[in-house]
User: Fold this.
Amino acid sequence: MDNIAGKTPALSWAKNIAMAAMVLIWVIPTLGLLVSSFRDRDQISATGWWQAMLPVELTARARTVTEAVADGPLFRVEGDIFDDEEARSYFSGMPGDISAFGTRGAEPTAYPPGTTADLGDGETLTVNADGSYIWITPEEPGSRGQRVYFAAESPPKLTLDNYRTVLSGDNMGRAFINTLTVAIPATIIPILIAAFAAYALAWMEFPIRGLLIAGIVGLLVVPIQLALVPVLNLHNDIGVGQSFVGIWLAHTGFGMPLAVYLLRNYMAGLPRDIIECARVDGATDFQIFIKIILPLSLPALASFAIFQFLWTWNDLLVAKVFLPSADEAKVMTVKIADDLLGSRGGDWGILAAAAFVSIAVPLAVFFSLQRFLVRGLLAGSVK
Amino acid sequence: MNPLIQGLATIVLGVGGCVAYFYASNLLLDRVLYPAKGPNIAANIRRANTVRPWLFIFPALLVLAVYLAYPVVGSAWRSLFNRSGDEFIALGNYVALFESPDFRRSFLNNALWAIFVPVMSVTAGLIAAQLSDTLKWGNIAKSLIFMPMAISFVGASLIWKFVYAVDSDIGLINAMVAGLFGAGPVDVIQIPFWNNFFLMFILVWIQTGFAMVILSAALRGIPEETIEAAILDGANPFQIFFRIKMPQIFSTIVVVWTTITVASLKIFDIVYAMTGGNFGTEILPSYMMSFMFRDDGRATSVALVIMIIVLPVMISNIRQAQQELR
Assistant:
């Protein structure tokens, strides 16, 4: 169609630009999160992630040393501001020139470098661009030096510290394992059960088959909110309670209608001849299912498996209801939504790293198995 | 590592149990109950074939009955009782719901979600499908727009929390507002009424890829002759799109529309993670969660309201399935 469908150069340009704009809107938020997860705390609060590759001007504070030299009636203290441990801690790598300094927290950048600040009572402070300072005071400095605030450029720095903090502390590693523990059984068990049922509904003759199919299609849209209270009560009554077994069963139940529906549609589309030939040769339905239908249905099974995995991995609501609220049973989504957003709400680097840990597995699954995912979607929605 | 081992054990037990059930029950049927040999061979085969479908379908039916069919009845029944479930109060919970301003606001917000999310996702998905189909880098563009489908709603909320952040050194929106207009920071999450749309956009961001993939398959399925004929008749690209293509993919648009509508009616994670239902963004599922674990009567009555809203979709689904079977 390329050569006919109204292809004027102007239109083609407009299409390219419009598409590029849309892709940018769709990608930039995730990119921002990825970049932020590698930046350290001070840099995140100093400049936006889109400037992550540029040096950051940080405002730091330090104290002068206290070894004074008598200079007439006055005392003179000299040193290098970057010798101070607190000042160093703000800068990773080589700090740049000092761009301003001050002596009060309220005005940390009151004076340009190289000028002499008058602190009153005959006290003066000079800070040079290279970090050297001269503090002149009429009284002997005690055990504490003079507070100095200054601004200097810190080179861009990418670090894995956020990931280290997230994975080592905060029980996020545990949550990662919990999420796996929920998602894997909750993916395999429903598929197995659904495959048998789908075969029966597609290829076996029995009364009320049509009614069952219609019923399953109806159950497709039952909101899971409806199930929360009665099923949790049922779980408590039969002794399952809030537990991993409970959430596996719940996910199995909630995923079942779509699994049966998709697999039945796929299996019903397989050629009738193959199945009838096998029947004539004396194969039982069990053998036909295992040896013929199952291998032929692999693409459909794979695409549903991906879906089920993605949404058991990504689920928040079912986990909140069917898992205990104790920290050691939390999955990552609950951990992030309940713990991190509350207690670490302002700690953007940690939040970004935690989010990336939780979306890394789905993204890997997505990019490696995208073809199956699309195929599954199309099988279910386009007639 | 304990949970990991526990998980592995369940996979083995659960999967093994399922396999064992199917294998053993069929073996029992074929060898012990109705063996395909001896004097009654014909009758036995016939009987075995009557029973077998039920063996295949039983576990699925059991799970469906317990987790989806029973809850419809169970919730309806439970919603007629008081907080602790020991006193029958008929429609008391529903009366209390409709008198509550929080419920009314949740209901209206939910309606906003159910109207605007499908409109925006389908429109964006259609535009993306139409644009990407004729571009050389269309497939790359498609997978980038499709990518948010893989991200959890909580992850997506966090991603957009960065974009919406008040601090113009973190939030892209505020950085642009400051850069372009020099205006002070705005907290879009706290602007009454409009904050709902900022939350909705997160779901649109997720669902557009879904709409795009399906609509682009439908667009490709349009026979080329109809388009060629239109071009020969002198139709411009917009006429081709709105008069020729749109009507032919209409049924697919309806399917995508209903799927996204149902998804947006149940959305909970985004509101929970972004605002916790504060600042007037509460929706029915998050309103329901505020009663979960402490007032089962109220919680189930809210759930039933959600169910009643999706009922038309359910009925139309069942009708369509029955038509297809015929």
Observations:
- Chain A is about 55% helix and 10% strand.
